[in-house]
Write a structure and sequence with these properties.
76% helix; mainly alpha; transport; elongated; 3 domains; transmembrane; single chain; cell membrane; Four Helix Bundle (Hemerythrin (Met), subunit A)
């Protein structure tokens, strides 16, 4: 109810202001000379969820110490050669930005803070190198006080825990997952319904992972269930390719009127089981046994419709098993010490941290933009000998570091510039008309409240968040919230101009170097999958299906908002990535089959895998293209001949992998009718 009427947002705004004032008071009391950095830090660290604040706080504090140490090291060594010092700091900040963009976890804040804290400390200290240690110590204390105050207030004052949000999201995700699986198995649901469910589930899993990264930093009972949560996340990731595979095979069999009545009844029973959350109706073990009993005999030769039926039933049995494990893990997250089945316990034992997509090219562009910004800013500062130039470089470097993770960060940086301009307009009357009349701290808090509560309210509005960052980076310093009041207009004007020019420099650099665009970024995600698939054809590749699925579903989570930003239908790209995900699973199965394959079967697979590699190499180079007829013929030949002298289970594994490979690479290419008739007759 509170959230509906903005209660949570209002509470966050009040807590952020309280944390900032607490940090400012402590910094003043212990005599720090620039306590406004404590205010800035308290706002930058602020997050609606307590666990998110704690996770960011720890890594930010570590990054602050590292950044201060780098400044202490570089300034005495290179202070007399400002060009070299500028180059060293630019390279350091670029390196930190590069690593932070690759590490999409709370750890990234360590590298971000290590980068721009070095600039915050080093640039203003160039003129007084002998005091660099003192300056670094003071800045680290100010930032540390801001971090500690924010953590304390957001964790103790009406905290909104990650645990509560996570439990609610798990319940909602389970509803989405079971609804999509039901829709995938029902013949009366259209593609639009299934695609909407699929998109929602991919987004839900992505959000679940983002929340889960903050759980270890929260003091709650749910924190102790991190292994259960990782297992649940892994199982949910398996649902997308499994359900989409069942849907694909089921539709093909229905169109060919080749779906046996017993299988149709089984599908309806699975839908009924998914509709019964309390485990009523048939047990999952019984449903899986029925699916295995309905499988056609894996004798040679093998008709195409029989291969489709085998593939559908195998994926259906796996789908039921995964849903059963998900239900157990969901119950384990919400209760203590409940008995788990052996498959659920095994899922927890085998759970690993999720592997995420890394884009080295985009990270390099972000690092280049940040380094270039620092270099250009420093050169202009050195050439002009402007005393306030350090402030411009600091604001520019912070802006680049904060927004380099975006496809096109220039619009966000432009909003930072707008926020900086607003801060100048707000700070001027405070600095010269209001604050000179304030004589004690309670009155100071009262007069600062309107401006800073406004900034806090803007932070929780996504459209205004970047502008709020621009305001909070500039407002405290321009107001004159130092250790003592000066009230000098020339200092105010110099600082205001420097900060506006610094933000403008960041806009220009990010526009020139970093801007990629959502369309190009989406294509890069698709090509990354094709590149990985080409590599997975290598016989030396070790099959790791869970890692592959995690990476591909992370790409779906990254792709969906980019397509939404373009205003495009997400159906085809999402289908492409899910299809590519299933291709990777098939390649893993083929590698497993090769361990026990005969020499003849190995030669057949060499041809298939070579053609698959050529296909995805071509896709990566051109961005599109139909499958080579030679690839389709190679798969069909292998389907007809593979596993003649091997065990039935090995033959079954090969048939499943090749059937899935053909359906996903060449779904619109019909099977050779003459070959299929011959196989059907022989069977």
């Amino acid at each position: 109810m509170a959230d509906r009427y903005g209660g949570h947002d209002a509470l966050f705004t009040l807590k952020a202001f309280l944390a900032a004032m607490l940090a400012y008071y402590i910094a003043l009391r212990i005599g720090l000379d620039r306590p406004y950095w404590a205010i800035i830090t308290a706002y930058i660290v602020a997050q609606p969820l307590a666990g998110a604040v704690s996770s960011k706080a720890m890594f930010r504090l570590l990054g602050t110490v590292i950044g201060a140490g780098v400044a202490i090291l570089l300034v005495p060594l290179l202070g007399n050669a400002p060009e070299l010092l500028s180059l060293a700091l630019a390279l350091w900040l670029g390196l930190c930005t590069f690593v932070a963009l690759l590490d999409r976890t709370p750890r990234a804040y360590t590298f971000l803070l290590a980068g721009y804290t070095a600039g915050i400390v080093a640039f203003p200290a160039v003129e007084s190198q002998a005091t660099i240690f003192t300056a670094a110590s003071l800045r680290a204390q100010e930032i540390g006080i801001g971090i500690a105050s924010a953590t304390l207030v957001h964790s103790l004052v009406f905290p909104r825990t990650v645990s509560a949000r996570l439990q609610a999201r798990i319940d909602a995700i389970m509803i989405d997952a079971e609804r999509w699986s039901r829709d995938s198995l029902r013949v009366d649901h259209g593609d639009a319904v299934v695609t909407c469910d699929r998109r929602q589930l991919a987004t839900d899993i992505h959000e679940l992972h983002q929340l889960a990264t903050h759980l270890p930093f929260e003091s709650s009972a749910l924190r102790l269930k991190a292994g259960v949560l990782r297992a649940l996340e892994t199982q949910l990731c398996l649902l997308l390719p499994l359900a989409s595979a069942v849907e694909d095979r089921c539709r093909q069999l229905q169109r060919a009127d080749a779906l046996p009545p017993a299988v149709h009844v089984l599908l309806n029973d699975v839908v009924a089981w998914l509709d019964a959350p309390d485990g009523e109706g048939a047990s999952p073990e019984a449903l899986r046994a029925r699916a295995r009993a309905c499988e056609p005999d894996c004798r040679l030769p093998f008709a195409w419709h029989a291969a489709l039926q085998l593939s559908m039933l195998d994926r259906l049995a796996e789908l039921v098993a995964v849903h059963a494990i998900c239900r157990e893990l969901q119950a384990a997250m919400g209760a203590d010490r409940i008995p788990l089945s052996p498959p659920a316990r095994e899922a927890i034992r085998n759970a690993r941290r999720r592997v995420l997509h890394r884009d080295y090219g985009l990270a390099l562009r972000g690092a280049l933009a940040t380094s270039l910004t620092v270099l250009i800013g420093c050169l202009l500062w050195i050439a002009s000998a402007w005393p306030a130039g350090a402030g411009a470089v600091v604001i520019a470097s912070i802006t680049c570091a904060l927004f380099s993770n975006m496809d096109d960060p220039a619009p966000a940086a432009w909003k930072v510039w707008q926020g900086t301009c607003c801060a100048v307009l707000v700070a001027a009357p405070y600095a010269f008309a209001i604050l000179p009349r304030v004589s004690d701290f309670p009155v100071l808090v009262a007069v600062l409240a309107p401006a800073f509560l406004l900034v806090g309210a803007m932070m929780v509005r996504r459209r205004l968040a970047a502008m709020a960052i621009g305001m909070i980076l500039s407002l405290p310093g321009l107001m004159g919230l130092d250790g003592y009041y000066t009230g000098q207009f020339d200092s105010f004007a110099n600082a205001a101009i420097a900060q506006m020019l610094g933000a403008l420099l960041a806009v220009w650099a990010l526009k020139m170097v970093r801007a990629v665009g959502a369309e190009q970024s989406a294509l890069r995600l698709l090509r990354a999958g094709w590149r990985d698939l080409a590599l997975r054809t290598d016989p030396r590749q070790q099959p790791d299906t869970v890692k592959w699925i995690n990476t591909m579903l992370d790409r779906i989570g990254l792709l969906t908002p980019r397509l939404a930003e373009l205003g495009r239908d997400t159906t085809t790209p999402l289908l492409d990535i899910l299809r590519d995900t299933r291709v990777g699973m098939s390649l893993d199965d083929l590698h497993r089959f090769r361990i026990r394959a005969t020499t003849r079967d190995d030669r057949l697979l060499d041809v298939v895998l070579g053609r698959v590699r050529q296909h995805f190499d071509r896709l990566g180079a051109r961005g599109q293209g139909d499958p080579d007829p030679a690839l389709v013929r190679a798969i069909d030949t292998a389907l007809a001949a593979i596993g003649r002298s091997g065990a039935v289970d090995d033959r079954r594994l090969a048939l499943l992998a090749l059937t899935s490979l053909r359906r996903n690479i060449a779904p619109d290419v019909p099977l050779n009718p003459r070959r299929d008739r011959e196989n059907s007759a022989a069977a």
